[in-house]
Amino acid sequence: MSALRGLHLSLAFAVCAAVPFTATRAADPEVTIVLRNHRFEPAEVKVPSNTKIKLVIDNQDPTPEEFESHQLNREKVIPGRSKGTVYIGPLKPGRYAFFGEYNEKTARGTVVAE
């Protein structure tokens, strides 16, 4: 191998090593839960187990609400008339309760991982 060809190969490897590697994958499955009249709709959400899920909480009430779940280890305040995103999982098969901390008597729901 000529010295010039060896130099070209060395430069090519150096350039490839300098370019950051980004893995491409499908987007996380997305589930939308609407908060209306201080109630989550749907109150029961089925998701695939062992998969990371993007929950979008669409708060259509004029007041803020805090999405909270001790079992999912998540909490997020969502201002009135806005959307918030909470990532959950991957989850083992089972039922995971969530609630709205500001309206706990009515804002209740469950994530069911199957």
In words, what does this structure look like?
The chain is mainly beta and 114 residues long. The protein contains 1 helix and 9 strands, in the order αβββββββββ. The chain has one helix at residues 3-18; strands at residues 30-36, 39-41, 44-47, 53-59, 65-69, 74-78, 82-88, 94-100, 108-113. Strands 3-9-8-5-6 form a 5-stranded mixed β-sheet, with no helix packed on it. A 4-stranded mixed β-sheet has the order 2-1-4-7, with no helix packed on it. A hairpin with a 7-residue loop joins strand 8 (94-100) and strand 9. The chain is globular. The relative contact order is 0.21.
What's the gist of this structure?
By secondary structure, this protein is mainly β.
Write the layout of secondary structure elements.
Elements: H1 3-18, E1 30-36, E2 39-41, E3 44-47, E4 53-59, E5 65-69, E6 74-78, E7 82-88, E8 94-100, E9 108-113
Parallel strand pairs: 1-4, 3-9
Antiparallel strand pairs: 1-2, 4-7, 5-6, 5-8, 8-9
